[in-house]
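Notes to self after the Tuesday call (sharing in case useful).
The group wants a holo model before anyone commits to mutagenesis around the pocket. I volunteered. Ligand is iron/sulfur cluster. Logging inputs and output together so the record is complete.
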Amino acid sequence: MANKTKKISVQTLGCRLNQYESEKIAAQLYPYGFERANQKEAADIYIINTCTVTHKADADCRAMIRRASRQNPNSKIVVTGCYVDNDPALVEGMEAVDLIVNNAQKDDIATIVPAKFPDLFTEEPDKSCSTMVTDFFDHNRAWLKISDGCNQWCSFCIIPTVRGRIKNRAATDIIDEINMLVENGYNEVVLTAVHIGHYKNNQEPRMKNLTSLCKHIMAETDLYRLRVSSIEPQTVRDDFIEMYADSNGRICRHMHLPLQAGSSQILKKMLRPYDQKRYINRVELLKKAVPNTIIGADVIVGFPGETDEDFMRTAKLVESGLIDYLHVFSYSDREGTPASQMSDKIDPRIIKERNAYLTRISNKIKENALKRQIGQTLDVISEHKLQPDGHYFGVSDNYLKVKLPNSITPDKSVYKVKITTSHSDYIEGDLI
Ligand code: SF4
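Result:
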């Protein structure tokens, strides 16, 4: 009887960097003859790539591990990622877990896992199989890691502890991987890192910073559009804004700048290296540089010592029209961070109210940004998922959700859509 194809399920929580690393792990294990299982399919081995940015993230990781174990009790479960680095004993102690691999070992998973489970890895790896990330399972847009780690140590953040100091990838590797993705039909690549704005590569003298890397990518690849994921405001330098303005639309008109707080006093306690004035200045220049740029921002509510006045400064800034959508996070103590030692913690009921207040503002500013698209023609790449009423959603270059007619093929193509209508969280129009 022919050998049953072995299934691997790679599941990811957290940031785009984690999403990329999961694809990298899968690419390293495919040569052993594994087929990728989707979320609904039982697998022989599960790789769960975790996040620990908040308490909720930890709880979601534990739930994902238990779900995998229920889906196939005879499977092997490998857990990796930031939650493993933050609390290895707890994760390893979970009954369902067969192996933990911390962030520093992630690149060696293709040797660690087969050695641990020889019964599952019976075949020699197929050497002709590329271990670069050339495909993004179930995605029509690709994420690409350019660096790891962070040296900034914001007072509330656990990430420098679990991901270590900044390590940048060689631009040559980045270019090679983008060319492979373009060859595979990808029209959009999202550059991702923990601290993207601090990219540079001393081994490659021309790679002074993120701006030089973006210019290099546009010169050395035929990639249709490049998206820069979350970028720290103080690293949006004038040369970056100039490069963005001169990119003729090859850099997506979307910038996500974590604000965290609108009060400079709170920003100081967070050890954020900018104040409210500097943040506003950077956003204004980005919007001036390229019309119809959409700006997103992360905000933390309930940071220790946050007064009503502090909070209203945040609300006033995000309501000012400069920002188009928010990711609102409720402050959560992360053990070992300076903020967790601060005394003046905010009542959880107040944190909840402030989160709800900013979320309402976010919905309103987003709706305004969507309304502004009427009459515009946008480049849209569809998502994979077919919606219950038979159509697809896509993502515009300025990062807005666009309803696409069901006549399209949900592949990596770029569709031009003339926007005619806006709704609370998406827009639609005519295919051109
Ligand atoms: S920049 Fe600050 S918030 Fe971002 S990962 Fe680094 S320490 Fe954390």
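Two things stood out.
The first helix runs from residue 16 to 29.
The mean pLDDT is 95.
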